[in-house]
Design a protein that fits this description.
Elements (H helix, E strand, L loop, with lengths): L5 H14 L4 E2 L17 E10 L2 E9 L5 E8 L7 E2 L18 E9 L4 E10 L2 E9 L5 E6 L5 E6 L8 E7 L7 E6 L6 E7 L10 E4 L4 E3 L2 E12 L2 E11 L7 E4 L10 H4 L7 E9 L4 E8 L3 E8 H9 L4
Antiparallel strand pairs: 1-21, 2-3, 3-4, 4-5, 6-7, 7-8, 8-9, 10-11, 11-12, 12-13, 14-16, 15-16, 16-17, 17-18, 19-20, 20-21
The protein binds beta-D-mannopyranose.
The site of beta-D-mannopyranose has 9 residues, from strand 6.
């Protein structure tokens, strides 16, 4: 019988104890509930996040009482308190966009430096399946819709905020032959997409063995692009959505520098364990406070509420550097 590799196990344990204190739940969680929304809703969850005019803006997925979603902006000076929620939906499906028939879901936001505008990639739900769709805006009041980027079934998408040798990069999650891996694709003009390849595959048998998908938008750090992703395990009583991390090369984002073996947070609090869909934490937006190095990650809890976890960016990068290459 092979001897267990004690050194490996010691390293695994060291990382597992480190990971437990990496992310802290905001003490006043949840930050949004359907009850406090300015108009009737069934649930509020999976928000995109961006810094806009020195404030934190969340574009929240709001599911109405027909089961269709739209997106509504909420703004706060510190990203934690005193949220001002638009009194009416901010971005809704329109008749002339057939692909949006069953609503708009799960936005991710980046500021595109070269175009001096925000790009929002959301899922438009068409009867033909979910489609990764692009809209741009400068102020989150008026929007330009570009329609779907790639064919269905595809979700969990974000652009990178900058180009790579003149090409935009898109992270997304098509489902192909029933497999749900994270892919990356490139485009010279945000319209024609190619050079498609698998970026982060599922790991059969692991906590992220059933499905993976991008969480928040990619975040540029001195060590590489920080990728926060969700991983799904299928169990006898349903799926469990947890969160893992990876680091991509800054100039060649197809290259994975690190990937966490363990999940860095998962459903634990009562509002994450029980809701419209039990046992779901689903991060979709993050804001890094460059003064304090605090990373705020906004997520949907149990497809019902919006909650917040915070982490110190230096600690995240130190942890990732200790993860397998
Ligand atoms: C995913 C998406 C998310 C949802 C999650 C958990 O497939 O549809 O919008 O939050 O499942 O139900």
């Amino acid at each position: 019988m092979a001897e267990p590799n004690r050194q490996d196990w010691t390293d695994t344990l060291a990382n597992q104890s480190r990971v437990q204190s990496l992310f802290s739940r905001y003490e006043k969680n949840p930050i949004f509930t359907p009850e406090q929304w300015p108009y009737p809703t069934s649930s509020v969850f999976n928000p995109g996040a961006a810094e806009v005019n020195g404030e934190t803006l969340l574009l929240v997925r709001v599911e109405d009482l027909r089961g269709f979603s739209h997106l509504t902006a909420a703004r706060s000076k510190d990203g934690k308190t005193d949220w001002r929620i638009d009194p009416q939906p901010t971005l809704i499906s329109e008749r002339e966009h057939q692909e949006e028939q069953w609503g708009l879901e799960d936005p991710r936001i980046v500021w595109l430096e070269d175009r001096q505008e925000y790009a929002i990639t959301y899922v438009s739900f068409s009867p033909g399946g979910p489609l990764v769709t692009l809209a741009t805006t400068k102020d989150f009041r008026t929007f330009e819709k570009y329609g779907p980027l790639v064919p269905p079934e595809d979700k969990d998408a974000s652009l990178f905020p900058r180009c790579f040798q003149g090409r935009y990069g898109l992270i997304h999650r098509p489902i192909i032959r029933g497999e749900a891996h994270i892919w990356i694709s490139f485009s010279p003009d945000l319209k024609h997409w190619g050079d498609h390849r698998v970026l982060l595959p599922t790991r059969p048998g692991w906590w992220d063995g059933r499905r993976v998908g991008l969480g928040t938008q990619p975040i540029e750090t001195p060590e590489g692009w920080l990728i926060i992703y969700h991983g799904v395990r299928a169990t006898g009583s349903g799926s469990i959505y947890r969160v893992g991390l990876a680091l991509l090369d800054l100039e060649e984002p197809c290259k994975i520098i690190r990937r966490s073996d363990e999940w860095v947070f998962g459903p634990q609090a009562p509002y994450e364990r029980v809701g419209d869909v039990d046992d779901v934490v689903f991060p979709t937006g993050a804001v890094l406070d460059r003064k304090t190095n605090e990373l705020r990650v906004y997520y949907g809890a149990a497809d019902d509420l919006v909650a917040l976890v915070t982490a110190d960016m230096t600690e995240i990068l130190d942890y990732l550097k200790a993860c397998p290459g």
